[in-house]
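This week, look over our next protein:
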Amino acid sequence: MIRRSAWLTGALWLAGLGYGQEFVSLMPERDISEHWTVEGKAPKEAWTVRDGMIACTGQPNGILRSRKVYRNYVLRAEWRFQEGWTPPPPPANEWPNAGFFIHAGPMVDGWPVSFEVQGYFGEAGSLFGVRGGKIKGAKRGPFVKERPPFGSWDRYEITSMDGKVTVVLNGVLVNEGTDAEPRSGNICLQSEGWPVYYRKVEIKELP
């Protein structure tokens, strides 16, 4: 009985930390509207669901906004750009762009009040405030000396916990910030100038 009580206590403690909760997919099966709303200049037609991916034309600028607001969570997602482009030597201002907005609030001048976790090819791993979003200690990249070949999938794991945000890029912790304001909001996928694909977007809410 004592052993069983100890096991039960440990299980309840782990559950309280979020262990045992499952990731929930944010990938639509047939239509974008299952999990997302379209905002910005990019029309609904710029976003399509095919082959297990969310495909975006990148033109014009806009976002997909999650239907649900999140505060504490782990977000996992993969993205890649359309093939057929050779990165020029740095510095370069025309690298393909995309990204993720977290803690997203109302739209201001085309983008939400939020934090962007950058998908821009030259600065993947960057974390910064957008349209008034504030976070301490976060940095802009680049953070890795070598990127996977252009057109390969990159993977993010983004954790938000009571104002602290950490960013793991392809299995490596590359960025973190604290005292994030706002501390909750929507998750958004970005359309900004280049055809991009998103897949395996999933989230696990934490207490």
The first strand starts at residue 24 and ends at 25.
